[in-house]
TrEMBL record:
Signal peptide start and end residues: 1-24
Keyword entries, A-Z: Signal
Protein name from the UniProt record: Bifunctional glucose-1-phosphatase/inositol phosphatase
Biased composition (Polar residues): 529-541
Composition skew (Basic and acidic residues), residue ranges: 472-519
Entry-linked NCBIfam families: PRK10173.1
Gene Ontology CC: outer membrane-bounded periplasmic space
Family membership noted in the UniProt record: Belongs to the histidine acid phosphatase family.
Organism (species): Pantoea latae
UniProt-annotated stretches for the region Disordered: 458-541
Domain of life: Bacteria
One term of GO molecular function: sugar-phosphatase activity
């Protein structure tokens, strides 16, 4: 069962061509569809105190306000800023209108079923579409990985296992991390750490890494690379969260050069585990297949204009590798997959040439924007870096053919169980009937595609109707409870007032009786009525 909860979208500019088929000028380019795949925003370290972190040093770690792995309050604020900027950008491109909520059928949000991913999606919606009825779709079972976002190995063959281990080992050997690990070793004083336990030789720079590629599990490694990744993840998050600099790595990372050198450990960990081609295609196949279903299989006229997916850095790293994205540089950040960053797939329509084009951008907040909590806007935007796919040559403005992008998606699924079925060759083509058969096959495919799209649209409409009905029922129940509470409050106030007035009247009557009595008459105690007694008891309750 999929549960719904909240969303938004993104994209880019247009211009003239260089190096491939000429595209239209700005006025002829129209953004038609956007799919954003976002890494969750700022969280507490996954390696919580008491685990890898405390085993790696005797030094005391600063305390976080949320449990390990959960989105922090600041992470929510940063995501609101990203959502607000995105809304401005989408309005600038004409995909949404400022001052009004988009139609719910035009926006779809889907998050992995962990706290940090669902919360990121919710905060994004609050920034992009405040007060709008937009839900976040996720699995009911919170705290478990959704298969679409779960980068696990599903090939249990010995041949794949050997190939994966060889690929990960080869990636690791290319990293040349010894100088960075030596520096990290000194920062944490690793030789004195509990993990060393008085061992004669114990340091991060000379230890061995052992990789694993088990069926049903994520690619993994034990050894200095994993320890170093956990430590640098914690230091990076401390910086973003805004801890005092003397608490960030105990004040021992002081320069951008140090950050860049040490961050190579965290980036290298990701590269070794998730970016070798065979492993990347294996672990990201469900995600590629889902993106393909949203951007290619669905009829463009019925597909959501704006889709947001929220997952993890491992998703982005493996996705970029599977799609054969060329090497890229992200200015003003140390991470290859920045926290809160988005891969933005944009479908543009070239009206002059009547064709669709793809633009793929990495949109992310810089390290300083994250630490300083800067409000984002069109005047103070996040960074936007255009990416290039090896199989989809771009013009000077970053556009490539939509057909070639579709081929790149299909190529990323080759060799996996989700690879698209090959189109059968018409038997009568040899007899001169090829064109007729091709037309029939195309018509059959169009009919099948329409049926699939109609079914998907009907299912989505039913799910949205159920979610809206559930939300309406919850709202009605809330309003009913509130009304009952207000009624009880009014009744309590009335009872208190009546009791006070009755007590005052009784006292006045008693005083008058005392005044009217003969001077020598014995004083009598006023009799308190049962009604007054009940009133006082009500006030006490």
């Amino acid at each position: 069962m999929i549960k719904k909860l909240s969303l938004c979208a993104l994209s880019v500019l247009a211009a003239l061509p260089i190096g491939m088929t000429a595209h239209a000028a700005d006025g002829d380019m129209q953004l038609q569809q956007v799919l954003m795949f976002s890494r969750h925003n700022l969280r507490a370290p996954l390696a919580d105190n008491g685990s890898v972190l405390e085993q790696s040093t005797k030094k005391s770690w600063p305390q976080w306000s949320v449990p390990g792995g959960q989105l922090t309050t600041k992470g929510g604020v940063l995501e609101v800023y990203m959502g607000n900027y995105t809304r401005q950008w989408l309005a600038q491109q004409g995909l949404v209108q400022n001052g009004s909520c988009p139609d719910s059928s035009n926006v779809f949000v889907y998050a992995n079923s962990l706290q940090r991913t669902v919360a990121t999606a919710q905060f994004f919606i609050n920034g992009a579409f405040p007060g709008c009825d937009i839900a976040v779709t996720h699995q009911d079972a919170m705290g478990t990985m959704d298969p679409v976002f779960n980068p696990v190995i599903t090939d249990d063959s010995e041949a794949f296992n050997k190939k994966a281990l060889a690929a990960m080992t080869a990636e690791n050997e290319k990293l040349a991390l010894k100088p960075a690990l030596q520096q990290l070793d000194k920062i944490v004083d690793y030789k004195s750490a509990p993990a060393c336990n008085n061992k004669k030789q114990c340091d991060l720079a000379s230890g061995d890494n052992a990789f694993s590629a088990e069926n049903g599990k994520e690619p993994n490694v034990s050894g200095p690379l994993k320890v170093g990744n956990s430590l640098m993840d914690a230091f990076t998050l401390q910086y973003y969260e805004g801890f005092p600099l003397e608490q960030v790595a105990w004040g021992q990372i002081k320069t951008p050069e140090q950050w860049k050198a040490l961050s190579a450990i965290k980036n290298g960990y990701q590269d070794a585990l998730f970016t070798s081609p065979d492993v990347a295609r294996e672990v990201t196949a469900p995600l590629v297949d889902y993106i393909r279903s949203q951007l290619v299989d669905q009829d463009k006229a019925n597909a959501p204009k704006i889709t947001l997916m929220v997952g993890h850095d491992s998703n982005i790293a493996s996705l970029l590798s599977a799609l054969q994205v060329k090497p890229y540089e992200l200015p003003e950040t140390w991470e290859n997959t920045p926290i809160g960053g988005q891969l933005v797939f944009e479908r543009w329509h070239d009206a002059k040439n009547n064709k669709d084009l793809l633009k793929l951008e990495y949109v992310y907040q810089t390290a300083d924007q994250l630490r300083d909590g800067e409000v984002l806007s069109l005047k103070n935007p996040p960074k936007r870096v255009t990416l290039q796919l090896a199989g989809c040559p771009t013009d000077g403005n970053g556009y490539c053919s939509w057909e070639q992008f579709t081929q790149a998606l299909n190529g990323a699924l080759q060799g996996t169980p989700m690879a698209p079925a090959a189109q059968p060759v018409a038997a009568d083509a040899v007899n001169g009937e090829g064109e007729k058969s091709a037309d029939k096959a195309a018509a059959d495919k169009a009919a099948a595609d329409k049926a699939t799209a109609d079914k998907a649209a009907a299912e989505k409409a039913a799910a949205e109707k159920a979610a809206a009905q559930k939300a309406a029922e919850a709202k009605a129940a809330e309003e009913k409870a509130k009304a009952a509470e207000e009624k009880a409050k009014v009744e309590r106030a009335a009872a208190q007032k009546a009791a006070a007035e009755k007590a005052a009247a009784d006292k006045a009557a008693a005083d008058k009786a005392d005044a009217d009595k003969p001077a020598d008459a014995p004083a009598q105690k006023p009799v308190e009525s049962a009604q007054n007694s009940d009133a006082k008891q009500t006030v006490t309750q």
